[in-house]
Amino acid sequence: MKNCTLPFPELPDQVPSRGSALTRQVFKKIFLAQGWCFSGEFPNLPKAVAIISPHTSNIDAWYGFLALLGLGIRITIFGKNSLFHTPLKPLLEWVGVIPVNRENPHGLTQEVTEIVQSRDKIWIGMAPEGTRKRANKIRSGFYYIAHEAQIPIVMFSFDYAEKTIRCLGVFYPTGDYAVDLEKILNLYDGQFSPRNPEWLALPLQKHWKKP
Question: Do 165 and 73 meet the contact criterion of CB atoms below 8 Å apart?
Fold first, then answer.
C-alpha cells in the first residue's frame, strides 16, 4: 500500500458543505488509509454540475463517497420521485437525493434547472456513462442541465493505476454539445484508468493511455 504524499484539499468556502470537522477527519483518514490520493485544485464555485468518469465498477461509489465525505461537500443527486414513497425516503433525504419526474427527459432538464435557480448553493452529481458496464456513448443530460442552468461543469476522474481521484478543472458549456463533448473528453486524456478496462465506455477508450 502506497502512502499518499499529496495534501488532501480543504473545501472552499463557496462550495455547499455538509458534516462536521470530526466526520470529515474520520472519512479523510479512511480514504487515505486505503492508499488513495486526491489530486488537483478544487474550484470555489457555489453551483456546478460535477461529473466523474470512468465508471466501470460498483466500488467506484465507495471511493467516491469516502472522498466526498472527507471533503465535506454536499452533492445533490436526482432520483425517481416514486422512490420517495418507499421506506428508503429518510435515507435518500440524508444522502441528498431530490425527487424528480424522470419520465420526460426534456421536462427533467427544466425541472432541475428550476431547482438550481432556487438555490444559493448546489452541486449536482451525475455519471455521464449512466452505467458501470460498457457504454456506447456519453449521455448528454449532464451537459444540457449545466447549459440550461448556466452553471459550469467540474470534471473528476478515477485513476486506479495511481489510486487517485483527480479534479480535472472547470468547463463552461457553449451550447454546442458535439464540440464541447470532444473538448471535455480531451481533458480526460491520460488522466484516468478504469477498475475494469473491459467495461470502459467506448468514447473514453481512445483517451486512456495504458501503462
Answer: no
pLDDT per 10-residue tile (average), the chain, 211 residues = 79 94 94 94 96 92 91 84 64 66 66 89 89 84 93 97 95 97 96 94 90 70
Distance CA 26, CA 34 (A): 13
List of E strands, the chain: 37-39, 47-53, 75-80, 97-100, 122-126, 153-159, 164-171
- Report the chain's C-alpha Rg in angstroms: 17
Q: Given the C-alpha cell 476522474, which residue does it identify?
A: 157
* Residue 79: per-residue pLDDT: 67
What backbone phi and psi angles, to 5 degrees, belong to 32? -70, -30
Q: Where are the domains of the chain?
A: 21-205
Residue with cell 420526460: 104
What residues pair up with 204 in beta bridges, in sequence order? none
d(CA 172, CA 143): 10
Tell me the pTM. 0.88
Please name which of 172, 143, 168 lies closest in space to residue 156, comparing C-alpha atoms. Answer: 168
- pLDDT for residue 2: 64
Residue 114: partners with Cβ closer than 8 Å, 6 or more residues away: none
